[in-house]
């Protein structure tokens, strides 16, 4: 899993393809382009922490989207009780979900690190179910949304009007991605984490505290995804099952980009976000947009496994 | 000893068959649900014995249900035969899909089956002329005009068929092939087992059972809908049952199914909107503390005390 070489190779091809697509779209359907990019960045920013866990701790966290859902509820109740703006609530959410991450790693995840894949999948599956049902029980399945004025701000270029608040997703995606890359490459803790991801036993031999690294990476990812929940709930209404589709979509992006390829996730999410918005823009065919992610995930996994066999 | 065991099976079967004589309609309905979940849990476990985790039970369950209902409505096929054909349809679909998907292993197979279930659901939802679209299709009347005794016998047949299938797989050489694929695929291949052929075979059989169960369910309740027939419950609950009872066996999923089925009926009355919470807890606790399941753990204990 050589992060750097893999990253350069695949992102080069993807860049060209998405660039050509973007030009065609910008002329034909500018709405699709702008909204697609905004949506894509939301997908990317949610997928990044999951990729971090999968790449370094080696666990497929099927409860990933549900941590985001909890983050959204956290920001909502912070707003209701203290009047704190959800965008400010990002910081308490980071702290709170870092602690939640530590707790869930220490109490649950730690014990299945060496277990078969099935047990890990089922465990996080069960965890997701607990979180969804608990939210359902505590806060009912009624969708809730904060009345925020600034989220519906818009800008107009010529005859074309688009929402400007959603650019916050693009900002978030860039900040999270560059932050993670800096952390992994420039700090010794980050490099230790990469080493653990490549070979836990080797990392242990050269004196890296593997368990502590797992704990740090897991909690960091949960903190990030919780904070993203706070951003997410500004624009979307939230309900207990709101996070579940994002788990699947995140996994799809990770499988497409290749495990350990963080930059690739951004490119892949751009392709998927644009494609999804493109299908949505045709009246009467919107129902098929859901299938796009799933069809692509199947396609990508099949092609990848075929390539591996040919090699 | 062996004769005694068969005698026990026959006695239990007779009790189950004659159950409608001494119980009311409510208990029969509860039994219907439990038996349907047992059939699903067993079929999931049968595939698991080869090491492949499927998260697509609901997909094939829904496809079987739709196939049975649409065949009955459009071609006037007898409900019982249409249930069988629902199983055949799901099996055929699994064969087509399996040729490609069974190249995958581990988490990739699991995720692709989950994605496929979603794809089936979206496709069915987007052909309103044929399938009724998001609202689904309602049958003019449920099977046997809703007679609960006959319905119970139907579901019992489905469950017994899956138990027999599971036992056949446990007692023949298929069992050794699957176990060896699960333990080490390379060793299995080098000892002459056609891994891919066995995987396709077991995938088709288990999918057919799931489809048949879906067909029976659709006919009993008299309707199919994208959200109802493909509900994530039909994936989650069987997995939880097989896990709780003990994987890689016939009686594990059966015991798990009975336990969870009874518990869930009770919980539905206590916490109507959160009974799935307990399922999640059961999955987590089982994985953490006794990954062998109830029967597996009991078996180990018995062996230990026997040795001492």
* Rg over CA atoms of chain A: 20 Å
Largest chain-chain contact?
A-B, 42 and 39 residues
Total of helices of chain A? 12
Low-confidence stretches of chain A: none
Strand order in space, largest sheet of chain A: 1-2
Number of domains as seen in the coordinates of chain A = 1
Structure summary:
The complex is a heterodimer of chains A (311) and B (308). Chain A has 311 residues and is mostly helical. Helix content of chain A is 75%, strand content 3%.
What does it look like?
- The complex is a heterodimer of chains A (311) and B (308).
- Chain A is mostly helical and 311 residues long.
- In chain A, a hairpin with a 2-residue loop joins strand 1 and strand 2 (160-163).
- Chain A is globular and about 65 Å long.
- Chain A has one domain (3-310): ABC transporter involved in vitamin B12 uptake, BtuC, CATH 1.10.3470.
- Chain A has 12 helices and 2 strands, in the order H-H-H-H-H-E-E-H-H-H-H-H-H-H.
- Chain B has a two-stranded antiparallel ribbon.
- The model of chain B has no long low-confidence stretch (mean pLDDT 87).
- Chain B is 80% helix and 1% strand.
- Chain B has a domain at 24-231.
- Chain B is globular, with a radius of gyration of 19 Å.
- Chain B has 16 helices and 2 strands.
- Chain B has 308 residues and is mostly helical.
- The longest helix of chain B has 27 residues, at 195-221.
- The interface between A and B is large, with 42 and 39 residues.
Any descriptors?
heterodimer; A: 311 residues; mainly alpha; ABC transporter involved in vitamin B12 uptake, BtuC; two-stranded antiparallel ribbon; 2 strands; globular; B: 308 residues; two-stranded antiparallel sheet; 80% helix; 1% strand
